[in-house]
Design a protein that fits this description.
The strands form eight sheets. Strands 21, 22, 23, 24 and 25 form a five-stranded antiparallel beta sheet that branches. By secondary structure, this protein is mainly β. It has strands spanning 9-11, 15-17, 27-28, 41-47, 50-56, 64-66, 73-75, 87-94, 101-109, 112-119, 133-136, 139-143, 149-154, 159-163, 179-186, 190-195, 200-206, 211-216, 221-224, 227-230, 232-233, 238-239, 244-250, 258-267, 270-277, 284-290, 297-302, 307-313, 318-323. The model is unreliable at 1-5 and 20-24 (pLDDT under 50).
């Protein structure tokens, strides 16, 4: 039997269902990836026992292109950003043998696509079910099942795998701090990672010496009435423009309530946490998304089931929460 149909909705002043007869057999199982110029984006939908990679393009007919699923594997993550204008990357679980999680590439064009399995990496048998992140064309970051951050980059003739190790190495008396989510490519030299100790860390490339380094930005911390407030970085971060990183951070260790926070680059070696708060009537939940340029719109799901848009108001230098309501399929 087919799964229950869950419609895809688009907000254009109000929610409207994106209609396409080819899409009506699907149940969307992952949030959409970041949109490309022109409004095209990728998402994952369930069809029978498999998850399919779907591309939505508002400027073509049919609007939906189904690239199917990787041979012998089930997709388990949202796709990465687009690389080279014609390929995306995701993690899929092998349906035979030991059920390892591998990195797959979909190279697309002209309504057709080709799947390629990169396997895991030279450093681990399996990967984490965590969305890969494109730093720039030819450079991809993902996380293995040990919690190590892996960089796969094209040197002009072949793909090279670089192990960036743990967020922090372990000792005899202390386990290593593992990477959980990688995202927020910035300036072709920085990726941001939420870690198992609920800190946000930066992996950045120093062009002067040709080396990668870790920078620990700690847990999101700010002051309220002269008292320090500390939250837990436990969702995937995103960069919107140069020097602005956003994520939802839990306000308690249980992770039940989340608030929007920004890590802002104020000047040389000066990063500062800025709380952006919550909508007036609810807390937030899950990952954030947003427009790629700053000043941004930052989108998040409220615990009330509504999509909320934090819009930056340059006249007040503050974010204003706009309730976009519920998509039609959720009403």
């Amino acid at each position: 039997a087919l799964p229950i149909y869950t419609p895809l909705s688009q907000y254009l002043g109000d929610w409207m269902e994106v209609s396409a007869s080819a899409a009506h057999d699907y149940r969307w199982v992952c949030p959409p990836a970041a949109p490309q110029p022109g409004g095209s984006f990728f998402l994952v939908a369930n069809f029978g026992s498999l998850n399919h990679l779907i591309q939505y393009n508002p400027t073509t007919l049919p609007r939906f292109t189904d690239y199917g699923s990787p041979p012998g594997a089930v997709i388990v993550t949202t796709p990465s950003e687009v690389m080279y204008g014609n390929r995306v990357y995701l993690i899929a679980r092998d349906t035979s043998g030991d059920g390892y999680y591998n990195l797959w590439e979909m190279k697309f064009g002209g309504g057709k696509g080709t799947w390629f399995n990169f396997g895991s990496s030279p450093f681990a048998l399996s990967l984490a079910a965590s969305t890969p992140s494109v730093l720039y064309d030819g450079s991809l970051f993902f996380i293995d099942n040990k919690g190590e951050l892996i960089n796969m980059w094209w040197n002009g003739s072949q793909w090279i795998f670089l192990n960036n190790d743990y967020c922090e190495a372990g000792t005899l008396f202390k386990p290593p701090i593992r990477a959980l989510y990688v995202g927020a490519p910035m300036d072709s030299s920085k990726v941001f990672v939420t870690c198992s100790d609920f800190t946000l860390r930066q992996r950045w490339y120093n062009g002067a010496n040709g080396k990668w380094s870790w920078i620990n930005h700690g847990k999101p911390t700010w002051y309220l009435n002269h008292n320090p407030v500390t939250a837990y970085a436990d969702t995937r971060p995103i960069a919107l423009g140069s020097g602005h990183v956003f994520l939802n951070a839990s306000t308690t260790s249980s992770g039940t309530d989340q608030t929007l926070v920004q890590l802002w680059y104020r000047g040389p070696s000066d990063w500062v946490w800025v709380p952006q708060g919550d909508p007036p009537t609810t807390f937030l939940t899950g990952n954030v998304d947003g427009d790629p340029l700053y000043p941004p719109n930052v989108y998040s799901l409220g615990k009330d089931g509504h999509i909320w848009d934090a819009q930056y108001d340059p006249s007040t230098f503050k974010f204003v929460w706009i309730d976009l309501g519920k998509p039609d399929g959720d009403k």
